[in-house]
Design brief:
Order of helices and strands: EEEHHHH
Keywords: Kinase, Transferase
Pfam families: PfkB (PF00294)
Strand order of the largest sheet: 1-2-3
Protein name: PfkB family carbohydrate kinase
Largest sheet: 3 strands, antiparallel
Number of helices: 4
Distance between the termini: 28 Å
GO cellular component, one term: cytosol
Radius of gyration: 13 Å
Organism: Paenibacillus prosopidis
Helix content: 40-55%
Number of strands: 3
Length: 95
């Protein structure tokens, strides 16, 4: 059985890794400007974390952060993404 992630919008996300352990990731506080692109950003961030070798739990944190930054932008992407990735403590600790 594979892993699964489901987003719950403003209520966060749940994930089910292959270990059958259930996890929940709440959203981080953000100022909503436009939610367009948030889902794509979430899954892009999550996949980025998995490609970097993170656990599903840690990868979902990546996705949650990237989606939050996208929500704070008037565009459907976060134009400041490279800067935010460099400034964020979680991402600084990634290999």
């Amino acid at each position: 059985m594979g892993s699964m992630v489901a987003t719950l919008g403003e209520k966060g996300a749940v994930y089910y890794p292959q270990t059958k352990e259930v996890g929940y990731q709440p959203v981080f506080p953000v100022k909503l400007v436009d939610s367009s692109g948030a889902g794509d950003a979430f899954f892009s961030g999550t996949v980025m974390g998995l490609v970097k070798g993170l656990s599903l739990k840690e990868a979902v944190i990546c996705g949650t952060k990237v989606a939050g930054w996208t929500i704070e932008s008037a565009e459907n992407i976060c134009p400041e993404l490279p800067i935010r990735l460099k400034q964020d403590e979680f991402f600084k600790n990634m290999k």
